Amino acid sequence: MKIETRTTQESPALATTTATTLADAKAVHVRRRLTPLIFTALLLLLPLTLLAAVSTGSTAIPFATVLQILLDGSHLLHFRESWDPALAIIIWDLRLPEALGAALVGAGLAVAGVLFQGMLRNPLADPFLMGTSSGAALGAVIAFILPLDTTYGLFFSLTPLLAFSGALLTVLLVYAIARVGGRTPVVTLLLAGVVMNALLVAVQTLILTLSPQAQFNLQALFNWLSGGISVNSWWPVVIVGSLIVAGIGGALVLGQVLDAFALGEEGAAHLGLRVEWYKFLLIMLGSLLTAAAVSISGLIGFVGLVTPHMLRLLIGPRHRPLIAASALGGASFLTLADLLARTVIAPAVLPVGVFTALIGAPFFLYLLRQSKKEYRWS
Amino acid sequence: MVVNLRPESWNVSAAGGLPLLEVRHVTFGYELQPVFFDVCLQLAAGEMVGLLGPNGSGKTTLLRLLSGVLRPTQGEIRLQGRELDRWRRRELARVVAVVPQELHIPFDFTVEQLVALGRLPFVGLLGSYGPQDRARIEAAMQVTGVAALAKRPFNELSGGERQRVLVAMALAQQPRLLLLDEPTAHLDIRYQIEVLELVQRLNREHGLTVLAAMHDLNLAARYFPRLVLFQRGIVADGTPATVLEPRLLSRVYGIAVQVGIVRGTAHFSVVPPGSREAQEAEEEMAALEPPPRVFVMAGGGSGERVMRALADWHIPFLAGVLNMGDSDHTLALRLASRVLTEQPYAPLSQAALEELRTALTTVETLIICPMYVGPGNVALLGEALTAARQGCRVLLVAPETAATEPSDMAFIPDSESQELSLLLARTGIAARDYTGGEATRLVEQLLQAGARVISRLTEVLALSAA
């Protein structure tokens, strides 16, 4: 038997740093120092965009006046009323609810995006992946064609209610379909979502084709489907607001779970997590946020996709800070988009969904081309 | 000639006491297809065990069962004396840590952030990291030599560095048992050594119990004082000297190998063939051993008694054709000189049948165990009939229950046909015939061709040895 003898290095040097990866280390280091700065910027940006949104419109109101009216109205400070009382009504009853609504929708969608991206371990996931959009749309269509007035008094309108229920019911159904033998494999979940989407869109088309009512409301429905913040009273803001704030709170609690999910479901299980239970919680939380947002905004794309993605590049992947930053960033982004949608071709109003897509899609494609190899479905 | 690197740790398990991990008669299957039957295994605290086996042998599945991700279909697994089902996931994560083969993470976590995740079982979801957790994380990174990489993104590291980070993450869990799934599979030779040296150090200096699935036999021989050879069941369990037995390996892996100690080293090396010398050596080795003259047909555990008895009597035999995953197959791998093998749950292929035909021409005795006969394996009986007609002695082993029916023996048959039906009854084939009568007809023809029905093992042995 001839076997060549050779010596192997018994204990090769540990930790060796190569020059090529030093740059990355530096990037991470820079990111670390930037994080507090970015949070400060986001915290400043949100009130500023809100202020801008409230002051801009068919009648421009100067910032100072807006501030005075708001502070006076909230009884924090008292100013001598030197402004047209109509302005106070415009601000309190029209612009502020709408601006806050936009901010809430933006925050909700962005956080839902973080949840789905983290749970599915894919930076390309978005809140509508599980069939929420088609469920909400179907709910809205039903509301539009029902032979009832869509608005009951000032309290609530049927559209948000049915959109919200449609979205949640669809996700529950998708989840139930995808559940096999006590497990819900991600691939099955996604496929079930796709199929359910197709089915609901077909039902929606069928209803629209057959219903005589549809002719009248088609324009309104089109506007709803392309996304637009439609808030004209405080009630929806309060209801949706509390849902979204609670949802974001829940998401912050589950931040660590999402970090563990980055290791894959089995990796997370090895760290002591009950994976299926948390998967269910994450899906439900994400869908609740999405449904709440969709109920007052219609279908607004890209906020939930782009916001978490961009902030992850800026502050890193840890989910607790990412959720907080995405909530702030999404809120500012959508408030701004809503502001632009109202002003660009004023007095006509563009659907916000068009705006977010026009900004979001090219930006996203740019990111995609920048780092193609990072996106692996696993 | 046996060079054991760590005899004392092997003795720990032999000494007894409560084992850290105990696998009791575990059977596992996905859906209806069992992956393995009746696996028993014990790990004592402080052991370092390598789990060997070809691709698809069920190594990874066994590890997943041990980590609690999968549940056994039958049998139980006990950790520190408590059944695995009774552990809460979080408790379990403080005792057992798993190092995966590799990790793809979609996001840019830094090394430190990943290692910190290992503290989750202690910190909880709402809690925050205290100074003790920080110290643990730091210590885990120090021990594995990744402290210098703490701020680097995990995805930018080399394979060996990543593997060390994964080990560091597992160490942050302060486990007693470390399970590794082919930790060196994607590494080049330098990192393979580096990672295994690290694991060995953790075992020796920190008393960590290690069970690692290994595909590299040489590395396994070098670093693991105890090896378990797995092929849908445990084929061998012991020191490298007993497990790395060339004939055993060649049966399990399906390729002839040589095992020896390379000059200047202290461990076994396994060398696959390739050179003419290796083949010559193999032929030489084969010439030393008398060619087996007995062939065993079995399946579903029916061959256990016969095969064990033959091995105890040092009667070399061939076995087949057996499906992988069949408990008789696992046993035959351990005991037979050669095993004719078919894919799991596949009906016998043409190629396997031809191999069987050739093998049957080389033996004098064919033992047919009381196995169930279905459409998948009925061809075995057809080949047996051909062999019987060509003069091979065929022994039909009667099932154990039939052996205790003396009334049949006392009965004196009137005619030849009555005698035949009596013999047929003794084989008990009718109860095991799932082919709608074809198997019974073949057995009847075998009996007509001179096959004998045997109830006693001693008789089988005497006839086989003759």
Write the layout of secondary structure elements.
The complex is a heterodimer of chains A (378) and B (466).
Chain A (H helix, E strand, L loop, with lengths): L21 H34 L7 H11 L11 H35 L12 H14 L5 E2 L3 E2 H21 L7 H25 L3 H12 L8 H20 L1 H7 L3 H6 L4 H23 L5 H13 L3 H25 L8 H19 L8
Antiparallel strand pairs in A: 1-2
Helix pairs in contact in A: 1-3, 1-13, 2-3, 3-8, 3-11, 3-12, 3-13, 4-5, 4-6, 4-7, 5-6, 5-11, 8-11, 8-13, 9-13, 12-13, 13-14
Chain B lengths: L6 H9 L5 E10 L2 E11 L4 E5 L6 H8 L7 E6 L2 E2 L5 H5 L2 E4 L11 H7 L2 H4 L7 H13 L15 H14 L4 E5 L7 H18 L2 E5 L3 H7 L2 E5 L3 E5 L1 H4 L2 H8 L4 E4 L6 E4 L4 H13 L5 E4 L6 H9 L4 E7 L3 H9 L2 E5 L7 H12 L3 E4 L9 H12 L3 E5 L8 H5 L5 H12 L1 H4 L5 H11 L3 E3 L2 H9 L1
Helix pairs in contact in B: 4-7, 6-7, 7-8, 13-14, 13-21, 15-16, 16-20, 18-20
Give an overview of the whole structure.
The complex is a heterodimer of chains A (378) and B (466). Chain A has 378 residues and is mostly helical. Chain A has one domain (96-370): Orthogonal Bundle (ABC transporter involved in vitamin B12 uptake, BtuC), CATH 1.10.3470.10. Chain A is 70% helix and 1% strand. Chain A is built from 14 helices and two strands; from the N terminus they run ααααββαααααααααα. In chain A, strands 1-2 form a two-stranded antiparallel ribbon. In chain A, a hairpin with a 3-residue loop joins strand 1 and strand 2 (156-157). The model of chain A is unreliable at 1-22, 150-155 and 373-378 (pLDDT under 50). Chain B is an alpha/beta fold. Chain B folds into two domains: 7-248, P-loop containing nucleotide triphosphate hydrolases (Rossmann fold), CATH 3.40.50; 294-465, Rossmann fold (3-Layer(aba) Sandwich). Chain B contains 21 helices and 18 strands. Chain B has helices at residues 7-15, 59-66, 89-93, 111-117, 120-123, 131-143, 159-172, 189-206, 217-223, 240-243, 246-253, 276-288, 304-312, 327-335, 350-361, 378-389, 406-410, 416-427, 429-432, 438-448, 457-465, and strands spanning 21-30, 33-43, 48-52, 74-79, 82-83, 96-99, 177-181, 209-213, 226-230, 234-238, 258-261, 268-271, 294-297, 317-323, 338-342, 365-368, 393-397, 452-454. In chain B, helix 6 runs antiparallel to helix 7 and helix 7 runs parallel beside helix 8. Chain B starts with 6 loop residues before the first helix and ends with a helix. Mean pLDDT of chain B is 84; it is low at 1-16 and 402-408. At the A-B interface, helix 1, helix 9 and helix 10 of A face helix 3, strand 6, helix 5 and helix 8 of B. Chain B: Keywords: ATP-binding, Nucleotide-binding, Translocase, Transport. Chain B: It comes from Thermogemmatispora tikiterensis.
